[in-house]
Automatic annotation (TrEMBL):
Organism: Galdieria yellowstonensis
Swiss-Prot/TrEMBL GO biological process terms: translation
Family affiliation: Belongs to the universal ribosomal protein uS7 family.
InterPro entries, alphabetized: Ribosomal_uS7, Ribosomal_uS7_dom, Ribosomal_uS7_dom_sf
Name of the protein this chain belongs to: Small ribosomal subunit protein uS7 domain-containing protein
GO cellular component terms, A-Z: ribonucleoprotein complex; ribosome
Keyword Cell cycle part of the UniProt annotation: no
Length: 146
């Protein structure tokens, strides 16, 4: 597993996003146990492709940045670069995992990834909410020049 996080961009970024207090070993252990959970409990032959599919389903295409024309705060939708999309998707997944009710972290992460791969889950809902807000605020897209 330790070589996988160095060779795969998504797993490497996931390890860094899930790391707390600089303890990368703890984050690596969480990801490793999640892989084991996906293989054993969920019966998934290739957990790496499932993780890639789940992250792709959580990637937002736009972000909202605040802008203050004439003292009024408006949310301006801006497109995201692929690296930014990956980072936001992994943060959405991290937040959705934290909001889940299962006892162990690797079980929560595995269940969230399976739900995301099937087009459901908390991170997918958050992405859809963000896209809906961006659609509502597209009238302010001309402020994107800043």
């Amino acid at each position: 597993m330790s070589s996988l996080y160095k060779s795969d961009v998504v797993i490497g970024k996931m390890v860094n996003i899930f790391m707390r207090d600089g303890e990368k070993g703890v984050s690596l252990k969480l990801i490793d146990e999640t892989f084991r959970e996906l293989k054993v409990k969920h019966g998934i032959k290739d957990p790496l492709s499932l993780i890639h599919r789940a992250v792709d389903n959580a990637k937002p295409l736009v972000a909202l940045i605040p802008h203050y024309p004439h003292g009024k705060k408006v949310a301006v939708p801006i497109p995201l670069k692929p690296e930014q999309q990956l980072g936001k998707a992994l943060r959405f997944i991290k937040q959705a995992v934290a909001d889940r009710k299962e006892h162990y972290g690797h079980v929560r992460l595995a269940n969230e990834l399976v739900e995301l791969a099937n087009g459901q889950g908390g991170a997918k809902k958050r992405r859809d909410d963000l896209h809906r807000l961006a659609e509502q605020n597209r009238a302010y897209a001309h402020y994107r020049w800043r």
